[in-house]
Amino acid sequence: MSDQTTADHESAGLLDGLIKLIPRRWRPGVPVVPVVRLSGVIGAVTPLRPGMSLAGVARVLERAFSTRHAKAVALAINSPGGSPVQSRLIYLRIRQLAAEKKLPVIAFVEDVAASGGYMLACAADEIYCDPSSILGSIGVVGGTFGFPELLKKIGVERRIYTAGEHKAQLDPFLPEDPGDVARVKALQREIHALFISLVKDSRGARLKGAEDELFSGEYWAGETSVKLGLADSLGDLRSVLRARFGDKVLTPVIAPSSGMLAGLLGRKSGGAEIVGSLDGLAGLPDGLISALESRAIWAKYGF
């Protein structure tokens, strides 16, 4: 063997050794599909307990779409919905990043992708779900309580002063005004039309059901959702991605920053959030209301 051949073999061996020192996800030729978890109620549950929002997930999405050697981005979705504004903002950011990075997006529905949660799923090029997943609820809902009779019973008089004819509409301490209800219904129809348009643009010809059924606010289990075109197929994240990209595909979960530095920057980990909600009596009422509100939204879908 010549000296040159020996040197070439030594160089190749050295290169192989160096490559092995590189984390697998950074090695050339290893397929990577970063996973972003989008879980929980969307938007403010109570003023001091925000749920999922664009501000909270924007950096995670950007990191996922900037992952080296990424072949696609996977979304693991488990949300009963919430704010239509935050749902649409997150949807738009995902679509913008997908276009910029030229990466396909694949959504995997876990327990629920309903209402705003389904809007998030529509940001994907393909939607997979479990047979027991709940999908749909393409509608708009709002509610409040009325206490005028209670006030009369306990001898309390409601006094309210406004500048603007409709500034106090739907005040829970005043009798319900049919005109106020009509205005809210009109607003809901406008938002509903935007939601319907987004679903049609995203799913296109894959939608199979009649519009008065699909957009009635109804929701369905996974298999029926596939038949209606709300999802593309049944499947779980690991199996689908291995079948698509090979058994060696890496699926790193891209999570928000946590720890000391995140705390200094004003962020909290999930554990810190729980401890914070129990820290003193002042946080108890808001934490209780937040928990009840979240529970009511999840309970609508049987969870």
Compact description:
45% of the residues lie in helices and 13% in strands.
What does this structure look like?
Helices cover 45% and strands 13% of the residues. By secondary structure, it is an alpha/beta fold. It folds into 2 domains: 28-137 and 218-299, 2-enoyl-CoA Hydratase, Chain A, domain 1 (Alpha-Beta Complex), CATH 3.90.226.10; 141-200, no CATH class. Strands 1, 4, 5, 6, 7, 8 and 9 form a 7-stranded mixed sheet that branches. A two-stranded antiparallel ribbon has the order 2-3. Helix 3 links the parallel strand 4 and strand 5 (105-114). Helix 2 (54-65) packs parallel to helix 3. Residues 260-282 have low confidence and may be disordered.
Spell out the helices and strands N to C.
Answer: HEEEHEHEHEEHHHEHEHHHH
- The CATH topology annotation of the largest domain reads as 2-enoyl-CoA Hydratase, Chain A, domain 1
Beta-strand portion reads: 5-15%
Shape: elongated
- Strand tally: 9
What's the total helix number?
Answer: 12
Based on the coordinates given, report the CATH architecture of the largest domain.
Alpha-Beta Complex
Give the C-alpha Rg.
25 Å
Low-confidence stretches: 260-282
Helices and strands, with pairings:
Elements: H1 3-21, E1 35-39, E2 44-46, E3 49-50, H2 54-65, E4 73-79, H3 84-101, E5 105-114, H4 116-121, E6 126-129, E7 134-136, H5 148-154, H6 178-203, H7 211-214, E8 219-221, H8 222-228, E9 233-234, H9 237-245, H10 260-264, H11 270-277, H12 284-299
Parallel strand pairs: 1-4, 4-5, 5-6, 5-7, 6-9
Antiparallel strand pairs: 2-3, 7-8
Helix pairs in contact: 2-3
